Amino acid sequence: MKYIDEFHNPELARRLLDEIHSTVTRPWALMEVCGGQTHTIIRHGIDQLLPEQVELIHGPGCPVCVTPLEVIDKALEIASRPDVVFCSFGDMLRVPGTGRDLFQVRSEGGDVRVVYSPLDALRIAQQNPDKQVVFFGIGFETTAPPNAMTVYQARRLGIRNFSLLVSHVRVPPAIEAIMRSPSCRVQAFLAAGHVCSVMGTGEYPELAGRYRVPIVVTGFEPLDILEGVRRTVLQLERGEHTVDNAYPRAVRAEGNPAAKAMLEDVFEVTDRAWRGIGVIPQSGWRLSSRYREFDAEHRFSVTGIRTLEPAACRSGEVLQGLLKPHECEAFGTACTPRSPLGATMVSSEGACAAYYLYRRLDVAPARMEASPVG
Amino acid sequence: MCLAVPGRVLEIEERDGTRMASVDFGGVVKDVCLEYLPDLQVGEYAIVHVGFALQRLDEESALRTLELFADLGMLQEEFGDPWALAAEAQGHSWSDEDGAPQEARQ
Ligand code: SF4
Fold first, then answer.
1. pTM (2 decimals)?
2. A198 and B106: CB-CB below 8 Å?
3. In 3D, which of A28, A147, A154, A159 has the Cα closest to residue A88?
4. Is residue B2 scored above 70 in pLDDT?
5. Which residues of chain B lie closer than 8 angstroms to A142, CB-CB?
6. What is the pLDDT of residues A3-28, one digit of tens each?
């Protein structure tokens, strides 16, 4: 147990691990949905502390990674227009579109700005009435309510030069798509804590029942992950499949009702393409017809986009838990954080980046280039 | 960017008809919208994501999570200069003469 002393509470970590070790009798495959959890797991070597029979599979829970190439290309085109101020969160800057990224658009003269909050983009719109201000609205259920509120505020304040390029995604349909895949090996899910702090747990019992799969809401600290794994393994060994909340300090069953109500007002559920995976029915949100005037795709009618994914990138399989990052031929050679082929290597929450960053390379050293980080 | 970060409410005010707060994230102070957690009070902790308070959190878990995120470099990612981070990742150095827009360096 080489890393365990780094834990916040090594004593408790050891107890949880002992219990997991003594509970497991058979092999189990659990998927952690959230990219933030993947980072904790890899960084603290949690996967190596667990019994060999417990395999953690990384899920599609990185919004930057799953934003479709077509949407990125639309963003690049809109951002290149001379009358547009394009606002985005920082982690979208280097996500490769077909041939370039937002970082490059800015160096070519585009007015691309990074904001901390979508409300900052709204303020920029207020301050620049002669410009069109577009905000790149991506993300899961945690990010969608802030963006919904921003559109609501834009309408309330009568700000007309603001619009949203929307590509929001929802977790439960992704879980369903994973379970329905013929190659699925996942037997239980560690659900993403912060998504559930907004949405609550109400969407999960039906899924857990239908696919006979335990779903345990889990936080982000090493101890949270161990506790999530412990409860999941207990259920699996007993043949149970219920929804369990192992992150009660941040997740209430009802979630955040005000945020859910705003989501329902501003957005409507729609089919959505996931980068590398394809279209998942009902897996996204778009602006509802009442807010259509704030839809950047409607305002700018971006058409004729021809997308081209690099053939070598297998991030779709990585996102579905079918392939570990280091099993990709390009990993660490043609594809590094410095010159990434796929979004899973760019995004700090991406599984490929996590493996690269923490040098988790059950892979020949010759495949690695010089030290990626200090 | 999907991770929300805990912070402590320092001050609350009404702005443009919206309830806003200054929130301290282990030293970095940001404007945060309280519309989704309207009864949050000064001194309390909440999970904040992209400038919105989403759920209350007790002080002990908040401080522990902040410490973890600082260790993982996630606070730097959330609050650092994103242009500099992107340039660095690409292998360039970054200087102020490059003219990062104001919003990038609040
Ligand atoms: S290592 Fe690079 S090329 Fe391979 S799947 Fe990951 S992002 Fe794609």
1. 0.86
2. no
3. A147
4. no
5. 2, 4, 49, 54
6. 677 777 888 899 999 999 999 999 99
